[in-house]
C-alpha cells in the first residue's frame, strides 16, 4: 500500500473509518477528513475504483453516480508519516512522486556540489563544485512550461538554435551562424582575411565587409562582390529613408539617389553629389554651402594649383577677404555694404586696377554716382544720358504753325547738357511771336546762347540781320532771335522767317 515503508501497520494505528447510510440518489458524503490519494471507498462492501468518485478537498467524497436509498458507503483514510534524515546504502526505487517543500533541496555530491530546489518563487539548479555542470543528451530542448514553444534546441551533430516566441532567430551552421531578422550589437569583430557576407532572399551574396590583413588593415565594403548584377550601389538608410548612397560609378550621393545633381544644363535634382570629376550641390531654396571658422581669423577656403596656393577666402573679424593670385591682390567685403581693394589680405588704398588696356571690362551698371579723379563732391558724376528730341518749333502765342522738320541730339553728363540739331522751315504769313525750340532739360543758373550755322539762308525780317538762339532760364525753351552788329536782338515770329534750314549746337547747365 502506498505511503508506507516496510510491513503494513495495524489498522487502528493508521486508519480512520467513516460509514454512511445513503439516501436516494445521494452523491456527496462529508467525512471526518482524509489526505487525498490516501483513502479507499467501499459501497455495500465493494471497493470503488478511483474513477467512481472524487476525493480532492480533504473532507468530501463525491460519487460519480448517486447511491440508492439504504446503500452503505464506507470511507477508509490512511494517515501519512515522514522518515527523518534517512540514509540509504543501496538503491532506492520510487513508484510514486518524491515531493520537496520550498527550500528543500535535492543535494548531490560530497561537497553539496549540485543542488536542485525551489525557493518558493524561483526554481533553481545550483552547481558550486570546481568542475563543470555537464548535461549529456543526444538531442536537448529547453521549452516553455506547457511545451508549446521552444527556447533552445540542440541536435547531435546539428544546429544549436535559439527561438523568440517560437520562431527560430539564431542557429549555428557548419560555417558559422545563421541569423533570421536584424542584429543589434555593441560591437563586431571580423578576423583578418575573413568576410562578413550579406545574403539576399535567394541566398546570393549581395554585400560584403572584408578586413584585409597587412598594409593599412583596410576595411573594404563591397556591393554585389560576385558581380552578378548591374547597377549595384551601397545605401545608408535611417528610419527606412535612404540618406546616402555610393553608386557603381563611384559617386557619393547625399540627400538624393540620382547622380544628375546640378548638371551643366541647369536642371537636376536637389542634393549633394561628390563625383570623380566634380562636387555638385543643388538646392531649390535655402543655403547651399555653409563654411564656419570658429574662434580665430584665417582661411575659410584655399585654392591651390599643383600644391601652390593661388587664392583663398579668409575671415577677418567683421569682414571677409577674397585673395586672388599669389601676389596678394584681392577684394574685401565690409559690414557697411562695401567692397574694398585689398593687398595680402589687408585693405589697401589706390593700389589695385580694375582691368587694363588689354583686358577690359565691358559694361558697368550702377544706380549711384562715380567719383573721378578724387573723392570730393566736385568729382562726383551721378548722371550720364545720351538721347534725341524732336525740334518742334512753336511760339508763345497761338498761331498756325508752318511746316518744318527737325531732330536734335543731346548728351547729358552730370548737370551739363550738350546738344546739336538741324531744322528745315517754311515761312508763314501767320503771326505769332517768340518762336522757340523746346529743350530736353530745363536750363538753370544762367542764360546762354546756342551757335547757329546757316546751311541755307533764311530771308530775315528786317533784312540784313542775323539769326540767333538764346537759352532762357527755368524754362525748357531756346528762343530764335534776330540780331544786328553792334545792336540788340528781337524775338522772331513765324511770319518773319522765310524758307530755308539752319543747324545749331551748344551747351547749357541744368539741375
Sheet-strand content, in percent, reads 35-45%
| Helix-and-strand structural type | mainly beta
Distance between the termini: 137 Å
Number of strands: 40
Low-pLDDT residue intervals, each spanning 5 or more residues: none
Mean of residue pLDDT values? 82
Biggest β-sheet strands, sense, barrel: 9 strands, antiparallel
> Any idea what the shape is?
elongated
Strand and helix layout:
Layout: H1 11-14, E1 15-21, E2 28-30, E3 39-43, E4 46-47, E5 53-54, E6 60-63, E7 72-78, E8 106-108, E9 114-118, E10 123-127, E11 139-143, E12 150-155, E13 160-164, E14 167-172, E15 177-179, E16 195-199, E17 205-211, E18 219-223, E19 233-238, E20 241-247, E21 252-254, E22 271-275, E23 278-282, E24 298-305, E25 308-316, E26 319-324, E27 329-333, E28 339-343, E29 346-347, E30 370-371, E31 380-381, E32 384-390, E33 404-413, E34 416-425, E35 436-438, E36 448-456, E37 466-471, E38 477-483, E39 489-491, E40 500-509
Antiparallel strand pairs: 1-7, 2-6, 3-4, 3-7, 5-6, 8-9, 9-10, 11-12, 12-13, 13-14, 14-15, 16-17, 17-18, 19-20, 20-21, 21-22, 22-23, 24-25, 25-26, 26-27, 27-28, 28-29, 30-31, 32-33, 33-34, 34-40, 35-38, 36-37, 36-40, 37-38, 38-39
